[in-house]
Write a structure and sequence with these properties.
Helices cover 42% and strands 16% of the residues. The chain is of the alpha/beta class. The chain has a 6-stranded parallel beta sheet, with helices on both faces. A 4-stranded mixed beta sheet has the order 9-12-10-11, with helices on both faces. 47% of the residues are buried.
């Protein structure tokens, strides 16, 4: 059974993580205090909860866990590392409802934070806390029997998430090179509340290109668009507070879809390790667009018929980044489709046929569509479709990151905050600019590749 270690870094990463754990428990049908009574039979629940090893270690394993109290009596510990250079968010895990599910050895904090400075997180806090982080990682790794990969959650805009988060990714690449590193990172493009966010996003992107196995970026503005579109469609009034909870829930639901093939049974399951093999044709083109349908938000539950899901998961409106894999100007290097719940092979074959009429594939990958079927649907749904695309339409994101970076760097604005960190070299700015340009050019080159032709004799 596949096992994952979740590493959440910085304020944003830990806020997503605080939503992640209860969603995991609900998906495994563990009743929390305000949950409605379960409709699962005892046998169904036993079949479902046998997969809880994916995210938990157990002292004693019961047949089933009806409530959170049952889970705590088994001395269960979540394989979560919570790291932040401020204590405010992580402190809630020490005192909150799920405090006994967190291992205290896996909570790492500092004061007063990274000051919204990538250099402070990467060059200062990284080396300072390197050994402590490695000890915590080793402690959790040694409790695993079949470690499938590391799942890292952080924001690209702040100092701790972008700086220390990418330092940890490189640390894992150096010390656990054979274990996959899957990164879910939030880009605040267009919604930044930090003036130095363009620098932080650029430096962090540069690191992920070289150290991550696969990156699943999400953009705040894409998430907010999804929330407002869903709530305005189904609700008369949109709460000003609800969208922020729903934004985190969308990210968590994406991760649950992403890992479902490794965690549950299915006729044609997709293991997480298959994603890298099938979706990343060149080492540095490892940023994958994700989308799924339907969305289930806190304030609205939408109902869809199965045939309505056909192209929705791959459409622009369901992407977690402002990009459109179906755009005729974009080139797809690989697609993965996962049907969860009541889907048949014929359902997915029909879906693939529709998709192929809309996608422009790279010449070498005209059949690069991997299909999976997972028996267990998301909580509260009968079925859903999850889509991953390695598409050049992701260039919209990187063009925006580079453009914002250059607006600041041309005027050398705020550069002194970074050079004040002794381990940071001012030449890193120029190197970052060059690396991002080279990275973007790799995608441009893919778009320019023409179909192969053979001379007839």
């Amino acid at each position: 059974m596949s096992e994952f270690i979740v590493i959440q870094v910085g304020q944003c990463g830990n806020q997503i993580g605080s939503c992640f754990l209860p969603e995991i428990l609900q998906e495994y049908d563990v009743k929390l205090s305000h949950d409605p009574p379960s409709k699962c039979s005892k046998r169904d629940k036993t079949d479902l909860q046998q997969y809880m090893y994916s995210f938990f270690n157990f002292g004693t394993k019961a047949a089933t866990f009806d409530t959170l109290s049952d889970l705590l009596r088994s001395n269960a510990k979540a394989r979560f590392l919570c790291i932040d250079m401020e204590d405010s968010v992580v402190a809630r895990f020490r005192a909150g409802k799920f405090r006994d599910l967190y291992d205290k050895k896996c909570l790492i904090t500092n004061y007063p934070g990274s000051g919204n400075n990538w250099a402070e997180g990467y060059c200062s806090h990284g080396p300072k806390y390197k050994q402590k982080i490695l000890n915590a990682v080793q402690y959790v790794v040694e409790q695993c029997d079949n470690l499938n990969g590391f799942l890292l959650l952080f924001s690209m805009g702040g100092g701790t998430g972008s700086g220390l988060g990418t330092f940890i990714v490189k640390l894992l690449a150096d010390h656990y090179p054979s274990v996959e590193r899957f990164i879910v990172c939030v880009y605040p493009t267009g919604t930044e509340d930090v003036i130095t966010a363009p620098y932080n996003m650029a430096f962090a992107t540069q690191e992920l290109v070289n150290s991550a196995t696969c990156v699943f970026p999400v953009e705040n503005k894409a998430l907010l668009d999804i929330v407002f579109r869903q709530t305005s469609r189904y609700c008369d009034r949109v709460s000003p507070f609800g969208p922020f909870e729903d934004v985190n829930k969308i990210i968590v639901d994406m991760v649950l879809h992403l890992t479902s093939g490794s965690r549950f049974g299915g006729k044609m399951n997709i293991d997480m390790n298959d994603i890298n093999t099938n979706m990343v044709p060149f080492p540095k083109l490892n940023f994958l667009l994700s989308g799924f349908s339907p969305f289930v938000l806190k304030y609205v539950t939408s109902k869809h018929l199965k045939n309505e899901l056909s192209l929705m998961a791959s459409s622009r409106s369901c992407q977690l980044v402002k990009a459109d894999p179906l755009d005729s100007r974009s080139t797809s290097m690989g697609v993965t489709l996962l049907g969860r719940g009541k889907f048949s092979v014929n359902d997915m074959r029909n879906y693939v046929d529709k998709l192929k009429t809309r996608l422009r594939f790279a010449p070498w990958s005209s059949k690069a569509v991997k299909v999976g079927l997972c028996d267990v649907p998301p909580k509260g749904l009968d079925f859903s479709v999850f889509s991953l695309s390695n598409s050049t339409s992701v260039l919209n994101l990187f063009d925006e990151v580079l453009s914002q970076f250059m607006k600041l760097y041309k005027r050398k604005a705020h550069v002194h905050h970074y050079t004040a960190v002794s381990e940071f070299d001012i030449q890193n700015f120029k190197q970052c600019q060059n690396d991002l340009n080279d990275f973007i050019q790799l995608y441009r080159d893919v778009e320019k590749i023409k179909p192969f032709t053979f001379n007839k004799r």
